[in-house]
Design goal:
- Two copies of one chain form a homodimer.
- The longest helix of chain A has 18 residues.
- Chain A starts with a helix and ends with a helix.
- Chain A is globular, with a radius of gyration of 21 Å.
- In chain A, 43% of the residues lie in helices and 14% in strands.
- Chain A folds into two domains: 137 residues, Aspartate Aminotransferase, domain 1; 229 residues, Aspartate Aminotransferase, domain 2 (3-Layer(aba) Sandwich).
- Chain A contains 14 helices and twelve strands.
- Chain A has 396 residues and is α/β, with parallel strands linked by helices.
- In chain A, the strands form three sheets. In chain A, strands 2-8-7-6-5-3-4 form a seven-stranded mixed β-sheet, sandwiched between helices.
Chain lengths: 396, 396
Amino acid sequence: MLSDTMRSFGKNACIIREISAYGAARSAQIGAENVFDFSIGNPNLPAPPAVRETLVRLLTEMDPVALHAYTPAVGLPAVRQAVAGYITETYDFPVTMDSLYITEGASTALAMVFHAVCQEGDEVILFAPYFTEYPVFVRAAGAKSVDVPCTEPDFQIDFNAFQAALSDKTAAVVVNSPNNPSGVVLEEATLRRLCAILQEKEREVGHPIYLISDEPYRDLVYDEDVTVPYLPAYYDDTFVCYSYSKNLSIPGERLGYLLVSPRMRDWQEVFAACAGAARTMGYICTSSLFQHLLPACLTERVDLTVYRTNRDLLYGALTEYGFTVAKPSGAFYLFVKSPEPDAFAFYEKAKSREILLVPSDDFGYPGYVRVSYCVDTDKIRRALPGFKALAESYGL
Amino acid sequence: MLSDTMRSFGKNACIIREISAYGAARSAQIGAENVFDFSIGNPNLPAPPAVRETLVRLLTEMDPVALHAYTPAVGLPAVRQAVAGYITETYDFPVTMDSLYITEGASTALAMVFHAVCQEGDEVILFAPYFTEYPVFVRAAGAKSVDVPCTEPDFQIDFNAFQAALSDKTAAVVVNSPNNPSGVVLEEATLRRLCAILQEKEREVGHPIYLISDEPYRDLVYDEDVTVPYLPAYYDDTFVCYSYSKNLSIPGERLGYLLVSPRMRDWQEVFAACAGAARTMGYICTSSLFQHLLPACLTERVDLTVYRTNRDLLYGALTEYGFTVAKPSGAFYLFVKSPEPDAFAFYEKAKSREILLVPSDDFGYPGYVRVSYCVDTDKIRRALPGFKALAESYGL
């Protein structure tokens, strides 16, 4: 019989997609050049040339039967080995291919983990603000999400709230740094404290509390003094959900991986549960063409100077106009405090000036808007007068 | 806490994949030319030239930002429109893009449907023999699968068993024709009778009983007098789960669609539930490159004469040697009765002659082996003496 839960997930679609669809429709009405759409995190930079070159080479040189064949569900051995080598070398954290499952982006990896480590009645702690889809994945896995707010103005973790939220029902905790929607990077001291608390709680409750690190923006960091610690080195019961969507500007192709830390207790059993979860969702394998692409592109990056320029331009202007903005070290988002308590009202006022932002309620943290700056620098420049007028309309 | 169900799905992996892995290891030991691996349904024909040409053209001519961008979760409008046009024209069954969700193959579509239309305690009827993964999908959706055997020797539906299995708990019925593992096509008379029974039962129980048509092999039919009826034209509450894996020989790329029949009651609500299920599984979209490929390749096919030759050769030889084989009109499988009751014992004897078959127990129908003939014709020829010796060893 039709599932009301699934129907509700389908009908109340992601607000970001809705605003983005409005932007497309509005562009058709008044011209794309007149709509300042900062709603969706769809990279505007072309993939590095090696992506096209490698894909064309594979298509023209490789036997098509082998190129497009089913791969093992976990991924091609050579690809998993290449990724394992990259992780081992880059993070000085030794892993083998046996810890790696090649996935259709980080979202798939997240859904697999939640279904693997959650049972009915379990709780998963989310640090707000967070990616809109986490609560959907958690609820579908039969668990309940528990929000823990950040501290302001630094957008780190409110540890009092975290300690209060932790319980013997806590199955997992999700970290996303650089953060979507805030662009903030969690400091090493924050993460050390988080891991220490988790270790103590694990001892107290006598079962694993998994740390799930969602890392689509790991390599999009714009300040040289900012580093993104590698969590498996800090806490044994860690999963890493990684995506190549942003690094390689191929978000529509769905390529990423799940790492089950080899330091995790019974990690092979946990890996089997993740593989089992993938199987129940009908995952057969990640695109074989894009798997073959990966070894040649592990160190490739889009031109990050463009995103850095956009960030500097927009952050500089918005703070100058009087907006309060979270310190944006990474990803391609600014998190701007709404000048009035209701972020939807602010969103509507910006929309009336053809500026499309995302009100933050669905990120579990009301009172802000997200500004995606993965757009043309020129468009940002042309949007500034509108932002300035908005600020003035609030008397900032 | 770790899910035992998921762990068990991960550890007890699909037997086909296991035998295929053995085949690869054995090939490394004694040479691929000496291993007659009929285990996996991995197409051995190259994709039609249009696949390579179109992919290279897209990569070299299209803006990479647009080419690799996120698409709507349901798929690109132009792609959905093209598929809707193809279905409308080919099956004389009018559909619009609103009924179509572009998926990562038929498996994803199946998983979506089961999660959308099943609730805890529901039952799903599977006609044995069936694809090994159906029971996994059904159980993950909280439902229970109920097996209904086929009739012999024609491998149609045992309607007495079907009537006995139908109940007010029946949420869905799965049909797969041409069938994996048997290669048998269900006759129109069989399907008419099935649909009539379902219609009557729907009226009796007062809720929809969905018919799920899993169609990865729809276009792989080798006899001119055999047709595959289009089920949405026969029964309103029908889903079609389609895959381009076999038609285009791109199984590793994951491309297919879900059709929610527009004749279904409340089809838009049902579609929303399928979309919601996709969301919970972390599906963001199907590979954007392969979506762009599709409109140019809707009528492309691999060279089916090769599969037909293989079928004729193998079916002719095996029946001549005395084996009992289901009439193989489509797909690329033969379903051969084990000369002894235990198909595993027969599998082992074949294996000792380097012939790899799949015992049928995991297809829900013991006592047979599946022979996948999507292999080189020459390899089939060279395997025949082994099959003959096997038959003789049983005194056939």
